[in-house]
Each structure stands twice: as C-alpha cells, then as structure tokens.
Design brief:
single chain, nine-stranded mixed β-sheet, 8 helices
C-alpha cells in the first residue's frame, strides 16, 4: 500500500503545535525545538530519508532534500518496502508491481539528486517495527553515517484536518527513531555490525515529516518543481497528475506563507545532539531557543565517514 495521492488527505497539515519542553527519549531528555516561524537555516552535510514506500519521500520531504543537495549536502533514501501492495487490481502480480515501483522510485531519486536508494523489501501493508527492521536500518545508518534523519512522524495517527496515517508510515517512522536512538550510536546494539567494521554512529537531528505539530519550516521556493518532477515518476500511483501538481503547489505556497517564502515544507524537529559547530551553516539562536534539554551523549564514536552506503 503505497503513499499515493489517496493518502494525501492531511499531509499538508498547517497547524502550529506547542513544543513539549520535556520530551523524553529512553529516560533522557530530548529537545523538541520551540516553534519559530522563520525559515530554518541549518543544513546537514549528510542526511538520510527513511520511508515506508516508494513515493513517500517524494510526497514528503523531496523539495527539502533537493534544496539541501543543491546547497552541497549528500542524501540517501531508504525505502522499507517496495510498495508491492499499492495497487487497485487484486489480480496484479505483487512481485511485478514491486519491481515497477522500485524502478519508479529510482527515477525519482535521480530527479531529486540523492546519491542512491536502498530497498529493504519488508512486507508492504504489514510493516512492523521489530528488531529485524531495526537492524537493517542501523546497518544503513552506520554505513552512510548521516548527520540527520528524515522520517514520518510516528506519533500522528489521525491528521488534525482529517485522514488516518497509514500504519506502515507510523511503523517506519518509529523504526527510524528507534534505530537512531539508541541503537545506531550504541556499539553493543547488534554487536556483530561493529565487529564487521560498521562502527557506532551518532545522528544529531531528526526531522519528522507530515507532522500535526510542526516547529520548523524549510524554504523550498526553488525546488517545489523538482518535487513535482519526482512525483511524475510514480505513474503507477498517480492517476490525475495535473490535479496533484496544482495541489502540491498550493500546499507549498500555504506552508511558505508562514515564513514569508513562496514555498516551504514543515517538520517536527527533534535535536538529539546540540553542538554549536554542527552543520555547514552552524546552529543559530533561532534554531535552538533555550536549548537546555538534550539527550546525553554516549561514548560511542560518531564521526561521519565518506563512503556512500546501501545495497539497493
């Protein structure tokens, strides 16, 4: 069951939520950045998008990914499933559909500019945040070594302006969070990975897309059309592309109005590691307002490497 336009009912959520100043991760305190309606300036040198289905990343943060890549970042996409249950015909062969959707996503990856894509071939429509998926994601994270992870907001079940968040989206989002913290940074988690050369890695930030309560907005005025071009690659899922393109432009414009931009994408940002020197543009006071609550750093190594990972 793919993230096609049928699931778009509320992905353009525009509500402004209150941050939780005491959001806890595994007993430690993580910082949900206070809402600040200016363009978010921080950019990760390396980032990874973790999505449930082919096309989720393009309906989601594709314009942000393209903007960051244009500015010099390196991005990688991970699709937990191949979207082989995302069709309307029960007689359609799931294997053939999965191969088609992987090809569509590979084409979209080229449009956005990712360094590559990995397909984890988990069951579409039955994705589970289990240890097997977590290990696969930890392997991807430790291989590519991103500074930030973009994933669906796993706490959203019902969109505030209508609609239900797909169970696969929720599972992929929570799996990404659990892989980031504490598993990827803990050398004792899946110790055979570290012993095989995949050292523990610290991811500094989580950008959760399709949130009910966004707290940062990324200016994507120059890359909305790239997002639309990427979506065009998913022909098996998009049946009225002209209508969808109009809606994407409208939603980007409405979201951009919050920060005085022609287009924007909204995220719920969670800072795991607060570091004044992180990122090519540095961390500004508007990015981290009263940054007193952060997750305590572990002793595990986390220096980003140069190798581009993935087996897809």
């Amino acid at each position: 069951m793919g993230g096609d336009e049928r699931s778009l009912g509320a992905h353009h959520s525009l509500g402004i939520g209150e941050c939780n100043p005491d959001s806890r991760v595994n007993g430690n305190v993580a910082m949900n950045v206070p809402t600040n309606e200016t363009a978010h300036a921080w950019r990760p040198p390396r980032f990874m998008v973790i999505a449930a289905h082919p096309d989720d990343a393009d309906f989601g943060p594709a314009a942000t990914a393209a903007a960051w890549i244009d500015a010099g970042s390196v991005g990688w996409l991970v699709c937990c499933t191949s979207g082989d249950a995302g069709g309307e015909d029960p007689d359609l062969d799931p294997g053939e559909l999965g191969l088609l959707r992987e090809a569509e996503q590979a084409a979209a990856v080229s449009v956005v500019g990712y360094a590559g894509v990995t397909f984890l071939h988990q069951p579409d429509g039955a994705l589970d945040n289990d240890l097997a998926l977590r290990e696969l994601l930890v392997r991807e994270i430790r291989t590519f070594r991103p500074d930030a992870i973009l994933a669906t907001d796993p706490e959203v079940v019902f969109y505030r302006d209508g609609g239900v968040n797909h169970s696969d989206h929720r599972a992929a989002g929570m799996a990404a969070v659990d892989a980031v913290y504490p598993a990827a940074r803990n050398p004792m988690a899946f110790p055979w990975l570290a012993k095989s050369g995949l050292a523990a890695h610290i991811v500094r930030r989580l950008y959760l897309f399709w949130p009910n309560d966004p707290n940062v907005w990324v200016d994507v005025s120059g890359t909305v059309e790239r997002k639309i071009d990427a979506l065009r690659a998913h022909a098996s899922q998009i049946h009225e592309p002209e209508k969808l393109e109009t809606r994407i432009r409208e939603w980007a414009g409405q979201t951009g109005a919050k920060i005085g931009a022609a287009g924007a994408e909204a995220f719920r940002l969670v800072i795991i590691e607060d570091d004044e020197d992180e990122g090519p543009t540095g961390t500004t006071a508007t990015d981290v307002v009263e940054a007193t609550d952060v997750v305590e750093a572990s002793d595990s190594p986390g220096t980003p490497g140069a190798a581009v990972g993935g087996d897809g």
